[in-house]
Amino acid sequence: MKDKYLTVTALTKYIKRKMDTDPHLREVWLRGEISNFKHHSRGHMYLTIKDDRSRIQAVMFAGNNRFLKFVPENGMNVLIKGEISVFEVYGQYQLYIQHMEPDGIGALYVAYEQLKEKLQKKGFFDQAYKKAIPPLPQKIGIITSPTGAAIRDIITTIKRRYPIVKMIVLPVLVQGEAAANSIKQAIETANKVGNFDLLIVARGGGSIEELWSFNEEIVAEAIFHSKIPIISAVGHETDTTISDYVADLRAPTPTGAAELAVPSSSELKDRILTLKRILIKDIRQKIKQQRQLLIKLQQSYAFRYPGQLLKQKEQELDRRVEQLQKAMVQKVTEKRQNYQHVHVRLATQHPGRQLKRAKLQLQQLAKRHNFAMKQVQTSKREVLYKQVDKLSLLNPLEIMKRGFSIAYSPSDKIIKSIEHVHPEDIISLRVMDGLITCHVKEVEEKI
After folding, report:
1. What are 215-261's pLDDT values in tens digits?
2. Which of 76, 87, 213, 298 has the largest CB neighbor count within 10 A?
3. How far apart are alpha carbons 309 and 440 in whole angstroms?
4. 55 vs 35: CA distance, rounded Å
5. What is the pLDDT of residues 145-180, one digit of tens each?
6. Is residue 43 one of the residues assigned to a domain?
7. Burial class (CB in 10 A: 0-12, 13-18, 19+), 184
8. The domain containing residue 230 runs over which residues?
9. Does residue 257 sit in the same domain as residue 271?
């Protein structure tokens, strides 16, 4: 009975073997919506594929997802090819994705739009970073396939328009998995060499898959960081790649790139002839003006009568000299007067005089102070004498001199009324020259 019970591990392994041997689960084609997307640091992608009623866990390992042309996002509808198996650790079945592409639009188109948005946010398309195309380049590097029609069109057009320019072909692959890296290395090599005035990155027309190497991020970065101006000419006029947006100038076709890269020699010759005619006309006009000026000068009074003009100028010089001498004398006189005025002011402000004047003021103030103090003392002395006289009149001793005395009770209090004394009390009488002790025999009230 005990042998009938399985372990969880054994049951899970059994289910896994059943699912792994089911031919219907070995190749599953699925349509659904991405949710809970997570791109692990090791490169694996973990996600959930769902529809309106159910969901399934899924994983796409790095070995498979590195070929994706787009970046999966939550909410994106996708078409998936994979297989169903069991993840034994959790005992759950999940979808192992082998291939995935957007549902409804192509993976390349999605990748194109995603990279375009990414680079635009980084500023790769900003006009501020665009370099000017040199008007008269001396050496041009052409980055394209050495066997395609694009190189023939470019070389033919440049030789016809501007044969004196030097052209160097930097051969690259223009389609396939290795093409993007080939184009990137050619751009970087041209920058390291450093003697190119201009680069043309080009190829002929084709499908989006054939032109895809010019939509790769490494090519866009190489164009953006190039110190040499770059003209992009990829495909036909209706084709627009990421390289066209990043380049300093976009040409509709390789032939158009050649026309934008160099001027037309015939147009330059016509322009030179036009400038030559304008220059000759300007020189002749200038000679005519200078000749008229020379004739005018020759007919002037100075050239016709130089002796008289010289005498006139000598008289004018004498007059100017006299004016200068008078002005100098007047200036010296004014300065002397100013000096004397300043000398007088300085003398009046001399410290010695100020000190002497201050001493006199101090003596006068001291005399006035002493006189005022004497007056104050006299006035205060008279007041003091008057107050002393008043105090003398109120002094009890002075009263006693006139025969009066003061009576004190046994408790040494002044007796002011008969109410304070009783018969048989012992009282004291203070007179001018001593104290008299008295025995009260009788107290009589008098009205």
Report:
1. 899 999 999 999 999 999 988 777 788 999 999 999 989 999 999 99
2. 213
3. 148
4. 9
5. 998 888 999 999 999 999 999 999 999 999 888 999
6. yes
7. buried
8. 134-263
9. no
